[in-house]
Amino acid sequence: MILRKAVFFVAAIAVATTASSAYAQFGAYGMFTVDRLSNIASSPLPAPPTTGPNARLNTADPLGGTGGIYYDFMKLGPVRLGADVRGSILTTKRGANVSFNGNGTRIYSALGGIRAVFHTPKPVLKPYIQVSVGLGRSDYGLSNSTSTGQDIIYNNFQYEGLAGLDIKLLPIMDWRVAEFGYGGLNPFGTYSHNYPIKQVSMGFVFHLP
């Protein structure tokens, strides 16, 4: 009886592994990304030396590029589950301490997460959702600098909830029509605060056929 259960258990694992491998898919993507960083006016960080607290704006809109890779490793009914790793470099010349171009705003991100792609009646349409967390580095648009003139970039816990749609163009290429995200930056250390982030991206995805 025990032997029969053991054989059944091993067989079940083999079937599950084979099924997962059959649906595994690797891909890479590049996107143009725009963030809206907010809740800056109430930041506990000291204001830059050249401005007063009343000069702070509440938002900044850095933009730039996002690149990443994913690996879909399992199929559960109409859903494919996978892992995603991405990085972003976003900047703008307008900071949160002035309403004109100056030292600017920066967000540098390295995130990892889990994604779910949904099967639709039209195979060319590939909607997905994703949750990612990781390290986000930013000056929050406040552009404080060291004695040597270098801008101070702070480390943060960054989190994002994402939803998007890919459309198949070629056997190995999809058009990422839009990806919408909402998340935030939470600083490590002394200046505890939440800086919400709204995000919009679009780009192209390359994957195995």
What is the topology?
Layout: H1 2-22, E1 25-37, E2 63-76, E3 79-94, E4 101-118, E5 125-138, E6 154-170, E7 173-187, E8 195-207
Antiparallel strand pairs: 1-2, 1-8, 2-3, 3-4, 4-5, 5-6, 6-7, 7-8
Average pLDDT taken over every residue: 86
Stretches where pLDDT is under 50 for at least 5 consecutive residues are 1-22
- Helical content class: 10-25%
Number of helical elements: 1
Give the strand order of the largest sheet, numbering strands 1, 2, ... along the chain: 1-2-3-4-5-6-7-8
> What is the top-level CATH class?
Mainly Beta
CATH fold naming: Porin
CATH A-level architecture: Beta Barrel
The geometry reads as: elongated
User: How are helices and strands ordered from N to C?
Assistant: HEEEEEEEE
Strand percentage = over 45%
| Gap from first CA to last CA | 44 Å
Task: Characterize the largest beta sheet: strand count, sense, and whether it forms a barrel.
Answer: 8 strands, antiparallel, barrel
Alpha carbon gyration radius? 22 Å
* Secondary structural class: mainly beta
What is the strand tally? 8
Count of structural domains: 1
